[in-house]
Amino acid sequence: MLPMPTTTLTHDPAWPSNSLLGRLRENTRQELLNIGTVVRYTADREVIEQDAKDTHVLLLLDGVVKVQTTDETGDTALLAIRVAGDLVGEMAALDQKPRSATVVTCGDVVAKLITSGELMSFLHRRNDVFVELIGMINDRLRWANQRRRDFLSHPAAERVARVLAELVQTYGREEAHGWTLGIPLTKVELASIAGMKPRTAEKAFSDLRKAGVVVSHLRRDVLVPDLASLRKFAGI
């Protein structure tokens, strides 16, 4: 069982700088951490469901989740991954409309469940957090727009390489034989971030393996022997 976060949450666990908690000043971050209710989820749990009408947000304290969407034909595409320090579900909390995506846990997750009322009251008290929240949403839109540009100007293998390079550099860890992403995602899920269908994913990863920049690994992980070579292959 995961350890319960301290009730006062006065320590700084070095949240990722691009996460919402990483963007905030210490006193503001502590005030946000002290609202809401601590919740725990096991692996492969849908914690937010596409088209649902609930409006709470989840502030991730520990663990990783994936954000995915399903179209009318039943095909599912991975949109993004989120880690400790990130906020998920904010769109429904802000506009009170049905959920635009599903959020699924990748392993055990600890989060703060914050109602839309609690969040809006907090944002009214702390305008600086609202500014940082808008900045976070803006960064996510820019990332999504970059994927659309990649779709127009790069072949499949390069698009996957660009996504992998960014994810590994942001979330991965360096080990003896290279970099690993450390998040249990399938090749199809990773390729779907780059905007390709399942049948194209295997071909793209085959091209990456032939180029020697990516090695498929056990437990749904990916090994990148040389991150610089992957970035070069991706044209970054």
TrEMBL record:
This is Crp/Fnr family transcriptional regulator. Gene3D superfamilies: Jelly Rolls (2.60.120.10), Winged helix-like DNA-binding domain superfamily/Winged helix DNA-binding domain (1.10.10.10). The keyword Transferase does not apply. Keywords: DNA-binding, Transcription, Transcription regulation. SUPFAM superfamilies: cAMP-binding domain-like, Winged helix' DNA-binding domain. Residues 154-228 form the HTH crp-type domain. InterPro entries: cNMP-bd_dom (IPR000595), cNMP-bd_dom_sf (IPR018490), Env_Response_Regulators (IPR050397), HTH_CRP (IPR012318), RmlC-like_jellyroll (IPR014710), WH-like_DNA-bd_sf (IPR036388), WH_DNA-bd_sf (IPR036390). The keyword ATP-binding does not apply. PANTHER family: CRP FAMILY TRANSCRIPTIONAL REGULATORY PROTEIN, HTH-TYPE TRANSCRIPTIONAL REGULATOR ARCR. Pfam families: cNMP_binding (PF00027), HTH_Crp_2 (PF13545). It comes from Saccharothrix yanglingensis. Residues 20-105 form the Cyclic nucleotide-binding domain.
